[in-house]
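FIELD: query
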Amino acid sequence: MTHPNAILVTAAMIGSIVLWATAGDILTASAMRQLGDLDVIRERSGIWGAAVAVVTNGRFGLGVVCLALSFFSLLFAFSHRDLSLIGPAATSLTFVTNALSARFFLHENVDHRRWTAAIFVCVGVALLAF
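FIELD: result
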């Protein structure tokens, strides 16, 4: 029998991975939209100018930090819990939170196929967890 606290700790680990990954994805996508077409920047300023434009963007930097925190949260979870649950659950739930965040923060048009896929992902994670 699994101890109730173990379930909460596992859920917190998965939640941390998903939170940081989603924040990182949304921030980096927002930064790239803010910068615009990198080909135009490269034509105007060269490849180094395009690289500097990306690296010096605050949202991009914060997004990279969030993605790094997600990665280290994933490593921590792998060292304490089963890969067979942590890997699929974190990846699948990140898909769902990315769809939600893209819709509400980036104002993307998330079509019915993605929402249907998100529902199936949630069902799959629930089957894994129980």
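FIELD: remark
Residues 16 and 100 are 17 Å apart (CA to CA).
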